[in-house]
């Protein structure tokens, strides 16, 4: 689940007046995972605190690189077992007895599912419908709560208590060391956990006049919303292998294939035409492909704005597809094969792309593949308007794993595996504007797998004399290779488009001095000429 759907808090206090304790915790959210770990280093061991830190770091680091084919259960059990073996072996080597010893609890949230495990007596609770339930299992001697039967690093083998649960909206997950629950009853935990980890640990400390008998740690994970992408993914829907003209799905009759792979069609229902897009057949076996398509469906459903085609996800679908309004127009790429855009039309286009990008930013998204093929040119009330298509390329801002984009429109840093951000999107907008006005690319067309150089930009005025100096400056700044000189955000570029009188001439580091400051060049040449004439005059007269 993302940061938008889950909130996290954590806090730890050392016992008595000590500055540091043996507890250690960490919370991380990356990709579609939320991971939290709480460790309570065994105080009777010489290296309990170090063990707690090592276990936490080991689990978090390994989950960043989890093999795609692994289940979450396999990952949790494998990573816990491996760090247990490492700490036990190190203890025997250094101390000839177990000294790197700690308890551990781990919670991993993916989609609408909680995957968790514990070793030792640190606990995991679930708060739902005003009731608190312990989900973890205490590894203690019966009748002797202070004696652990299992912990990380205590033996070469480890007993892992693993469990899973579905999560619901407004659930709260409490992870804590025994320092917390030994001071607070479940009724007290229930009463105070709603205010977050800091509050509940401070409340525990206040119960013993700020003189905690043990290190005390709490981590709280709050489920603000369920994961809608996972909800769509879990639906038991069919994916047809082959599609052909005349096929009917829930009343939608396929009439014309729009894309070579035959997954996007014009369809007809009740005498109206729509566009229907099916999931790739490979999504049946490939979870990564299914994830990407499901995100596309979710974005198509929730992104409601005038620059996108209207989209609907029928509630009673029999297959994985979604429906879009059929746009009456052609792609900008097709349009540019016959003519370029006028200055006014190109400004309208650019403002549409910037407004679209600013809208997506509210959802922490970027389009990812802005180019003329993904822009539809339409006629309305005697004016040309533009719609943006391809929900499939839309991705999270700052994503570094996403491969969205087309080489000729990718910012130079994207070829160095930089994240997708406002600046990289502005570059794509700049290249699209350049092409719309000139029919060319600023640095030439870039083929897949090519290693482009981005050396010298071709000034757009050379192709289109109608381009004013202020508009050329905007294009040059948007497509600048140097990120320090390129627009840093959408608002800056939009401001200059709205206020051409405030646009300053743009020059990159490779711009010749004659173009950058012709007056200075002429003054220097005039001065040199004057000196040369004076020298010749003195020499011959």
TrEMBL record:
Keywords: ATP-binding, Kinase, Membrane, Nucleotide-binding, Transferase, Transmembrane, Transmembrane helix. GO terms for biological process: response to starvation. It holds the Pfam family Pkinase. The chain crosses the membrane at residues 519-538. Gene3D superfamilies: PPM-type phosphatase domain, Transferase(Phosphotransferase) domain 1. It comes from the Bacteria. This is Protein kinase. It comes from Poseidonibacter parvus.
